[in-house]
Amino acid sequence: MYCIEDRFLMSKCMPEWILTLEEQGWYPYVTGTSVIGIKYKDGILMAADTGGSYGSTLRYKSVERMKVIGKHSLLGASGEISDFQEILRYLDELILYDNMWDDGNSLGPKEIHNYLNRVMYNRRNKFNPLWNSLVLGGVKNGNKYLGVVTMLGAHYADNHVATGFGNHLAVPILRSEWKEGMSFEEAVKLLEKCLLVLLYRDRSSINKFQIAKITEEGATIYPAYSLKTFWGFSAFQNPGQFAEGTW
Amino acid sequence: MDPLHDMNLDAPHSMGTTIIGVSYDGGVVLGADSRTSTFSCWFRVISALPPPGMYVANRASDKITQLTENVYVCRSGSAADTQVVSDYVRYFLHQHTIQLGQPSTVKVAANLIRMLSYQNKNMLQAGLIVGGWDKYDGGQIYSVPLGGTILKQPFAIGGSGSSYLYGFMDQAWKEGMSKDEAEKLVVKAASLAMARDGASGGVIRTVIINADGVTRNFYPGDTHPLWHDELEAQNSLLDVLSSGGAACPEPMST
């Protein structure tokens, strides 16, 4: 009887379901952090920073993590950028074939969400995931739709969604302050509130954001911009005054 | 819930090189060091292997490799992986050029590099910078790091030595440089990286690609500027003493 305890040897001869993904050689390298999405009066608003981290280094600072899909949808992604780029290639093909029918119909956000769910879940079952959390939002025939698909193939839809750190920091704010039928201005302000919190508290975030909008008329990805940060709390001035060495 | 929290955030490991690509109005300048060090091995093999990552196997390698007449690639990471990837891409581009009837675009070359890097991401260790010139979009630089992401950038840095250049490039790179300014920047940056990164060193090679063609330059160690704590090179201590430069230290007694 032999017992192989050397995990390197195991990685060469044992099935995928024994080894962790890292042991099989699947690592995320260039990653994007949170994406936030909310429904508002005219459609969907989505926000993400333009950073591509490489481990702990903030390596790339102009990565567009939200793209327009077809006529009715916006896709935002966090996680491995190369996998997001591959998903965009799959969707290009999907939309092309849809257009080739030339029948006046076009894939809406619900259909794209479902397609992405199938792709992500099937990859997960083969232990070869696309390392992303996706936010898919859109409007078709007056109906607003906002959903998420994760790298494990879990999917859901809601009035407000977020990925990564956004789940922990932005969603509580949105649960408290989101309301039905917000104006564009109110919605942008709410997203910016979340983005600022993420900037303060998420190590992988950078101060360069993009907001994207999709309405019945069409989609707009606004140019990248930075937010002012606040450091003027008196408590920040000399925190070690009465407790030397404190942090 | 989100696997982003499960991963080791500091996972990616550096590669023994410094590679740089800078675009300017009219073309691109690619640069690299020339050191190839031995790769660390996790097998417990009983043999006289050189210690991992410490022996300089080649002190004058050429890491800037031609893909087509107008497109070159800077290679970092595993020497074997990057050689084989660039060989495949050179082969594909050769056929593509014949079919197209004109020189391939930089974008196509970069996307072929991306395709191989992405499809073999779990086996390859290759960080590549593709640079070139074509008549449609002029000089372009594309970064293809580990994992197979493709990103078009005005300038790019890669390899283990690049860690020392993020701050430098943030400050020193400016929009609208001339060819000479761009090359000076590349040489200065590579030189700074080589001063601090043990895995980078040797000579600096640059390749300038523009509408007029390709120019290769070679900057050996004695032509680099001296940085902090570095001394002027001498032939021997005897020369230092005889020139009477430094005060001759008194012999110590007791």
TrEMBL record, chain A:
Its keywords, alphabetically, are: Cytoplasm, Nucleus, Proteasome
Give the multimer and partner information: The 26S proteasome consists of a 20S proteasome core and two 19S regulatory subunits. The 20S proteasome core is composed of 28 subunits that are arranged in four stacked rings, resulting in a barrel-shaped structure. The two end rings are each formed by seven alpha subunits, and the two central rings are each formed by seven beta subunits. The catalytic chamber with the active sites is on the inside of the barrel.
Q: Name one GO biological process term.
A: proteolysis involved in protein catabolic process
Give the CC-aspect GO terms.
cytoplasm; nucleus; proteasome core complex, beta-subunit complex
Known function = Non-catalytic component of the proteasome.
Protein name per the record: Proteasome subunit beta
Domain of life (superkingdom): Eukaryota
**Do you know which PROSITE patterns this protein is assigned to?**
PROTEASOME_BETA_1 (PS00854), PROTEASOME_BETA_2 (PS51476)
Q: What is its main location?
A: cytoplasm
Q: Which SUPFAM superfamilies match?
A: N-terminal nucleophile aminohydrolases (Ntn hydrolases)
* Family from the record: Belongs to the peptidase T1B family.
The record's section on PANTHER family has: PROTEASOME SUBUNIT ALPHA/BETA
Where found, per UniProt? Answer: Cytoplasm; Nucleus
Q: Which CDD domains match?
A: proteasome_beta_type_4 (cd03760)
Automatic annotation (TrEMBL), chain B:
Q: What class of enzyme is it?
A: hydrolase
* Gene3D superfamilies, A to Z: Glutamine Phosphoribosylpyrophosphate, subunit 1, domain 1
Which keywords, in A-to-Z order, does the entry hold?
Cytoplasm, Hydrolase, Protease, Proteasome, Threonine protease
Catalysed reaction equations from the record: Cleavage of peptide bonds with very broad specificity
Recorded E.C. number(s)?
A: 3.4.25.1
Q: What CDD domains does this protein map onto?
A: proteasome_beta_type_6
Record's PROSITE patterns?
PROTEASOME_BETA_2 (PS51476)
- GO CC annotation terms, alphabetical: cytoplasm; nucleus; proteasome core complex, beta-subunit complex
User: Which InterPro entries does the record cross-reference, listed alphabetically?
Assistant: Ntn_hydrolases_N, Pept_T1A_subB, Proteasome_sua/b, Proteasome_suB-type
Location in the cell? Nucleus
Active site annotated at which positions? T17 (nucleophile)
Q: Does the keyword Coiled coil apply?
A: no
Oligomeric state and partners? The 26S proteasome consists of a 20S proteasome core and two 19S regulatory subunits. The 20S proteasome core is composed of 28 subunits that are arranged in four stacked rings, resulting in a barrel-shaped structure. The two end rings are each formed by seven alpha subunits, and the two central rings are each formed by seven beta subunits. The catalytic chamber with the active sites is on the inside of the barrel.
Q: What is this protein called?
A: proteasome endopeptidase complex
